[in-house]
Amino acid sequence: MAAADRYLQFMLGFSWGVSSSAYQIEGGWNADGKMPSIWDTFTHNSTSIPGNADGNVSCDSYHRVDEDLYMLRALRVKSYRFSLSWSRIFPDGRHTSLNQKGVDYYNRLLDGLVAYNITPMVTLYYWDLPQALQDLGGWENADTINIFNEFCDFCFSTFGDRVKFWMTFNQPQTIAWSGYGLGQFPPNVKNPGTAPYRVAHNLIKAHAKAYHTYDDKYRKSQGGLVSIALNADWVEPKDVNVPRELMAADRALQFQLGWFAHPIFKNGDYPDAMKWQVGNKSELQTLSESRLPSFNEEEKSFIRGTADVFCINHYTTKIVHHATLRLTPESYEYDRDLSETEEGDSPTTAIKNQRAVAWGLRRLLSWIKEEYGDPEIYITENGVATDTKTTYDDSARVFYYKTYVDEALKAHNLDGVNVKGYIATSLMDSFEWLNGYKVGFGFHHVDFTNPNLPRTPKYSAHFYYQVIKNNAIQYSQCRPWLWSSCPRYDSSHIQRLPLASTQKLV
Prior knowledge:
There is one protein chain. By secondary structure, the protein is of the alpha/beta class. The protein has a single domain (15-474), classed as Glycosidases (TIM Barrel, Alpha-Beta Barrel). The protein has 17 helices and 15 strands. It has helices spanning 22-25, 38-45, 65-75, 86-89, 100-115, 131-134, 143-159, 172-180, 195-217, 219-222, 243-267, 272-284, 297-303, 332-335, 359-371, 395-413, 459-470; strands at residues 15-19, 79-83, 119-125, 165-170, 225-231, 234-237, 310-313, 317-322, 338-342, 377-382, 386-387, 419-424, 439-440, 444-446, 455-457. The strands form four sheets. The protein has an eight-stranded parallel β-barrel with strand order 1-2-3-4-5-7-10-12, surrounded by five helices. The chain has a three-stranded mixed beta sheet with strand order 6-8-9. A two-stranded antiparallel sheet has the order 11-13. A hairpin with an 8-residue loop joins strand 14 (444-446) and strand 15 (455-457). The longest helix has 25 residues, at 243-267. The relative contact order is 0.13.
């Protein structure tokens, strides 16, 4: 590689992968004994999702394991991040309701991944709590901590011979704030002042308990890793020369990422910025104690250090400046005393307020390195949405990936960040939560109007295949502004499968 291109080469052993989640792709919402999750309940009763969409069928991955494996093999990914549907394995959330057919489905998927040398990266909880447990209070109920641990224990025991990379929760900040504060996500609780803090407290304890279960019972024999997939936008201060703007930017990061990372990766406790802000606001609200719960010393010791690597989901960057916000109503949002705006110089995407700001990824990775003691970092989600009518020419997505992956590489090579892997979002278009099927993050287009649900690789799939194959981004080989210059990926290295509903990938 030419001298000018040297920084484009990734280190040997770098883990390239793609991601999905159970509710987004599996379908089969009530197949073979599965019972409803909170997302099933929500979508079946909601009129706020475009087209009144739901995940009842979606990509039908529950019935199309071989097709998913075919796409993964054609891309030559090193790893595949997916999640387990709790209510497919334990329909009512508890071990006593064990559904063997659900277990069989995941065994088929895992056996296929291992057979093709694709590393499974398994998320134990990706937002789809069994409805039966929500009826008992969900994550506001501390009993859910032990019930979740029972589920994790079963999964470690059953799948741990093949799974060596576990994530307990996906984006606990989203669970706590969007699910229990804003009430936009299931279980649609709108209690922004106290519920997010209580829920986060239970999620952190549940994560730590599951980590110790693996550590005590399975690590020696299985040798796997356990972490938690956190999420963060990068936040850039409005004026880097104004100290309070710098403090506001740091405060924004502490309230989003530090809320969970500080207890797990630092000292078992919440960031000082959170304790100070919420404590002072609570006092001014004449409350007898802070709305932010506290950990005792035993709990701090139990929580501290309960992650083997740092997993981060990242999509965009915001501009932040200090603001003195209201005291009433009580709210996690107002506790932060800051205001966020879009980074106006960067391209928009199909999702509002999610601009493509590649340079923010490098800054976020460097911040994590400095804040949490140089951990090994896996970028466990990164991608961009386009209109689902886009079937092949998604050159804007290629530009997104080229620039974001380039920034991750700069963070490693120039800033010394220990980046070990990159998981692109996502394998194929799927149910995109509150956006339904209006937008898609996939490398493969799925025709949801066709009962066979054919998958068609987009231009970005060919691009990503080349990145994985070369373990590098080569500008001379692939120019995003001239998408026809990028070589198509070659699936001749795999055996053709007789899959009627999967279009030819070359």
